[in-house]
Specification:
Rossmann fold, SH3 type barrels, disulfide bond, disordered C terminus, Elongation Factor Tu (Ef-tu), domain 3, five-stranded parallel β-sheet, globular, tRNA-uridine 2-sulfurtransferase activity, nucleotide-binding, alpha/beta, single chain
Length: 366
């Protein structure tokens, strides 16, 4: 099979390319240049989108013995990931840029170009598995599992994807990289948003959206408790950095409950008010059986799973949670999993539109 290996410059993608080559595939490595201005790249060995990454990827390709190219995807990345990130925060939602990059860049723009050039599939270093049945499953290394950010892929995209690392732990991947003589064996994993060089998300958004002062109000009384410089700097469940001038009567901390861009208002309340038992979502990608279905859902990257009853109707998904969840933010993904003897299977995903409490719905109906 003729495959294109997406090589970020990290250890995972290097070992994935090496395994594909060793398996007898005709492998070509490609590194994605994602910054319009390379000087805005981060520097230092932080594992993703640094100035060194292209060179690290090229050296890995040389060791493996495969052709290597750099593809300029800066415009597509800026439009589909960076601009989307800013627009989502401006709309009061909390996006996941890594998920969007997988959806729009690595498994859309890159895959489309690869197929046009005659490649059969794209190989990546994601920690996830594709079973013989073609279903996406969690990695055997649960702490490193990336099925959550891959659940946005369509059936057609999964059919042309190869994830060689899903049956290995991250520790084993590093050992193998060292055994293969790959210099990236000890390169650190990436943790930050690659296009925010200094890690200051609030500052990044303020430079693009400007200062937009507004009120922070109490959820129960509507009382003004403080002010903010831009609602985009807040996310659901946030506790720190609220700088409230009026303490809670019981002295307990307050949390962000909602963000209303239309009035530029941030609403805060108690931890108990954060709990929701119903999640609604849109932009559904569904691979599972007909619904309603009993399953488990994950509501944010690296978040805990919650048992739920999920129903899909057209492009709308509703999850009735069997246990309340906190910090459910619009813009994040909800991913449904079904437990299986061979590992958790991804049933589908959708973009969260709201988290609500049944009690509030009942009150609204009355």
């Amino acid at each position: 099979m003729r495959v294109l290996a997406a090589m970020s410059g990290g250890v995972d993608s290097a070992v994935a390319a090496a395994r594909a080559h060793e398996a007898g595939h005709d492998v070509t490595g490609v590194h994605l240049a994602l910054a319009r201005n390379p000087q805005t790249y981060r520097t230092g060995a932080r594992g993703c989108c640094t100035l060194e990454d292209s060179r690290d990827a090229r050296r890995a390709a040389d060791v493996i013995g495969i052709p290597f190219y750099v593809w300029d995807m800066a415009d597509q990345f800026h439009e589909n990931v960076v601009d989307d990130f800013v627009a989502e925060y401006a709309a009061g939602r909390t996006p996941n840029p890594c998920l969007r990059c997988n959806e729009k860049i690595k498994f859309a723009a890159v895959l489309d170009r690869a197929v046009a050039l005659g490649f059969d599939a794209v190989v990546t270093g994601h920690h996830a598995r594709l079973g013989a049945d073609g279903l996406l499953r969690r990695s055997v290394d649960l702490p490193k599992d990336q099925s959550y950010v891959l659940a946005v892929l369509t059936r057609a995209q999964l059919d042309r994807s190869v994830f060689p690392l899903g049956d290995s732990t991250k520790a084993r991947v590093r050992e193998e990289a060292a055994e293969r003589g790959l210099a990236v064996a000890e390169k650190p994993d990436s943790h930050d948003i690659c296009f925010i060089a200094d890690g200051d998300t609030k500052g990044f958004l303020e430079r693009r959206l400007g200062s937009a002062p507004g009120d922070i109000v109490d959820s129960r009384t509507g009382e003004k408790l403080g002010t903010h410089g831009g609602a985009y700097a807040y996310t659901i469940g946030q506790r720190k950095g609220l700088d409230l001038r009026v303490p809670a009567p019981d002295g307990r901390p307050r949390y962000v409950l909602s963000i209303t861009p239309k009035t530029n208002t941030v609403t805060v309340g108690s931890r108990e008010e954060l709990a929701v038992d119903t999640v609604t979502a849109a932009k559904v990608i569904w691979h599972g059986e007909s619904t309603p279905v009993e399953c488990e859902v994950q509501l944010r990257a690296h978040g805990e799973v919650v048992p739920a009853t999920v129903t899909v109707a057209g492009d709308a998904l509703t999850a009735r949670l069997h246990e309340p969840a906190r910090g459910v933010a619009a813009g994040q993904a909800i991913v449904a999993y079904r437990r299986d003897a061979g590992g958790d299977i991804v049933l589908g995903s959708a973009t969260i539109t709201a988290g609500v409490r049944s009690a509030d719905l009942e009150t609204a109906r009355v």
